[in-house]
Amino acid sequence: MSENGAVSEPSERGRAMSDNGTQNKPASGAGAGAGADPGGEDQPDDPLLRWRSEFPALEDSVYFISHSLGCLPIKTAEYMEEFLELWHRKSITAWDDWLPEVDRAAGRIEKLLSAPARTVTMFTNVSLVNSILASCFEYTPARNKIVYTGLDFPSVSYVWKGEERRGAEVHVVPSPDGVEIATQAVLDAIDERTVAVPISHVSYRSSFVLDIPAIAARAAAVGAHVILDCYQSAGVMPIDVVDLGVSFACGGSVKYLCGGPGAAYLYVRRDLIGLFEPRVTGWFGNEAPFAFTMPGQTYADSIWRYMGGTPAIAPLYQARAGAEIVGQIGARAIREKSLRSTRRVIELVDERKFALHTPRVPERRAGSVVFDFVGSADVARELNRRRFFCDHRPGAGIRIAPHFYNTEDEIDLFFEELDRVRLGPGKKDH
Ligand SMILES: Cc1ncc(COP(=O)(O)O)c(C=O)c1O
Prior knowledge:
The protein has 430 residues and is an alpha/beta fold. It contains twelve helices and 13 strands. The chain has a seven-stranded mixed sheet, sandwiched between helices. A four-stranded antiparallel sheet has the order 9-10-13-12, covered by helices on one side. α7 (212-222) links the parallel β5 and β6 (225-229). The longest helix is centred in the last third of the chain and has 21 residues, at 331-351. The chain is globular and about 70 Å long. 47% of the residues are buried. Pyridoxal-5'-phosphate binds next to α4 and α5.
């Protein structure tokens, strides 16, 4: 632990849990996995497995759902207790700690996005962040186009389609196969009429990595703004929002950052911060919230001008441990391991002749692998019941994402269990 109590090494408490804990793997239909101990000791060459002890749920599950809900760090309980203790002990004066926590949480995200200091602030979810950004723009007949793709997250699309009521015209670039999208098709859609390009760095439904530098360069050339949704990339691959050349970026705590729901973030390119006046606003976006001036908004000069009403504080404490751990390990090491893991998953998918719905090319593949076969939704449901955590998306298939804390053996265990569920005990079809 570092001097300020932040997680900088796997903690004593975590190690003790893991030493004393029975390394129970999930109960398997046919007892498979029994006897195998993918606890990490058998893979001494993988330094990231030291962090397993910080995530007790790994002891009795195969946890491959980090693209949707990252595993709970043991330290989270302590940080949430800190939040409650401040409330209990300091009452109204807890705000003296709580408001700076917004900036501290933003600082942790700035590190993950390689963003300059004071260019990030915190919200509760990405849909809200997009609503705020949408309220920054005006549409004219000459410039009213919003461009994104059929691989983007539906919730974000709902926000931008709603802008059509204000004069926007949404252009969704389709993905022919539901997996990838030709960069040129996106570039062709971005023209002098384009206002904004709210687009995912990585598609939630295929793990496809879009060519953001090319898209951002095209947007900049025509005076449009890229709003990058980093939800499926932050925490599993390196991101440099400045190098990528985007105007805005957003994402949240729920997935690879292991922070649970409620701590989403917004990055605004420094020179753009003062340029916009979001109509979706509130008193924490005011230059002097505690002056209680009426009736109009006078926006803060800082990144806080994008803030609406009272920020949600508890989720920031809840998300702290995950962001610290991911920041401590570093995205490069996580990415290297993730590429190895997803390659192994693809081998096992191919062996079974399942349909692969994720790019094979490593540079175009992020942290999850999506694959499909007849009956996959039912199989995913049963795997979750057996604590082999994964999910299923209609038209895409089963999604799994081994994260930094998973062992290679768990990948094999997962597929052995999947075979058992799919084929019944004792059967094999490959
Ligand atoms: C790419 C992407 N964007 C956004 C979201 C979620 O948005 P929100 O924070 O509004 O729930 C998800 C997943 O839940 C996602 O995968």
